[in-house]
Amino acid sequence: xxxxxPPLAKAxxxxxxxxxxxxxxxxxxxxxxxLDANLEGQLWLLExxxxxxxxxxxxxxxxxxxxxDALRDIKTYRTPDRYRRxxxxxxxxxxLSAVAGGIAVGLADYQHAFxxxxxxxxxxxxxxxxxxxxxxxxxxxxxxxxxxGVGTVGFSLNYLSxxxxxxxxIGFLRKRNPTLKIVLGGxxxxxxxxxxxWRSPFGDLVDALISGPGEEPLLxxxxxxxxxxxxxxxxxxxxxxxxxxxPGLILPYSAAGGCYWNRCSFCPERAEGNAYRPxxxxxxxSDLKLxxxxxxxxxxxxxxxxxxxxxxxxxxxxxxxxxxxxxxxxDEALAAPEFCLALxxxxxxxxxxxxxxxxxxxxxxxxxxxxxxxxxxxxxxLHRAGIAVYCYLLFGTPGETVVEARRTLDFVVxxxxxxxxxxxxxxxxxxxxxxxxxxxxxPFYDGDLSLYTAFRHPGDWDRHQVRRFLEGEFKRHPAIAAxxxxxxxxxxxxHAPLLCRIP
Length: 503
Prior knowledge:
Elements: E1 2-5, H1 16-27, E2 33-36, H2 37-47, H3 55-62, H4 64-71, H5 80-96, E3 103-105, E4 110-112, H6 120-128, H7 136-146, E5 152-156, H8 160-176, E6 181-185, H9 187-193, E7 208-209, H10 215-221, E8 250-253, E9 256-257, H11 268-271, E10 277-278, H12 281-295, E11 299-302, H13 309-317, E12 324-328, H14 337-346, E13 348-356, H15 360-365, H16 372-385, E14 388-395, H17 402-414, E15 421-426, E16 429-430, E17 441-442, E18 452-455, H18 463-474, H19 478-484
Parallel strand pairs: 1-2, 1-5, 5-6, 6-7, 8-11, 11-12, 12-13, 13-14, 14-15
Antiparallel strand pairs: 3-4, 9-10, 16-18, 17-18
């Protein structure tokens, strides 16, 4: 079998989905090949001759290999201006590689002026004309090299930015090898399939779609006679680990599926009914030990929606020996200064915190389970311990107006010295969440695959007003503007820990 991670996503760490599936297949005696077409495709585009239209473009083309090397050198992350210049030049080159056909390619996104990943008809259209995809010459050459003896090809489709390229590759394979079995899974596919009344619109293009963890369904599809539930850690060794756009291997590891809290209003995980599936802490620790010995990463990226309190304690008591970061909930454990110091000693360099709002009423209406007094303690404790904070804020929820949003502004300003990075998001209403019907649905995105709906805000604070507040007031405050400037361009939280002086 051939497992493919398609363009386009951030190419700074190996894809965990195909590494996990590949390990499971191998453990059951099923031959498997892995292809990170996202990384390879971007590097291929960057190597192609370009028609430089201005001085910046000529400089970017001339220095492309130097800039790739710079992103693989930790010294670059000690000089923010050098880092930003390398990222900006590489991003510009990718954009130049796809100027025709209304396609915009970058280090972190892929957009098409005429085709939408939210419309199944457009995905099918992309499959019918794969030669119009900017990665076509790459996969036209690369895929045939890997298909010898392969009867099944699986695609790990996790992001909207991957969808059009995925279907272009599927269309190419269908034309070249009509007998191939095509399987589609991943986070985005799981979200599609959780829609009530889901029926695949892709006809003969895709033989099977898999929702959620793919190990058992894939093994059954391949005819494995013995499907065990025995856990297998991900295997990244088949992937080109030195080529990722980071100064050493960033090792992704998922210790749980779903979210252990699972109570927040408007949460897509809850709307889709995704169960919480943790790996035992003892298994996590043994997996990390094995993976560190195998691949010598410079950083561990824990992928959980929120690292459980049990796992945080286990990491504090059993340091993995490699710096790490991930998402955590603001709770009483982190309000204890000694616990934050223990996390720092264990190698924690950064925690991503979903604060969402600096107004207690908004947090309560969202069932976040966050107390702002506790949040203040957590931010101060992490700062004193030397753990960076990547803080996530959400604006425009039904319980918020500009009055509450200004309280969030005030909270961030009061704690600006304890917040290293900010992610500012506009609220999207999950289409099939329990709360959607309360606020009046109306079209939001035009497409049968859309996962969100527009809604009537009870305080008449619409998205246009939210954007105007963010751009004209929130981001203009000097203390907040200084935090926003810290954010790594394109790679955001994936590269942020590297700017935190990892040894």
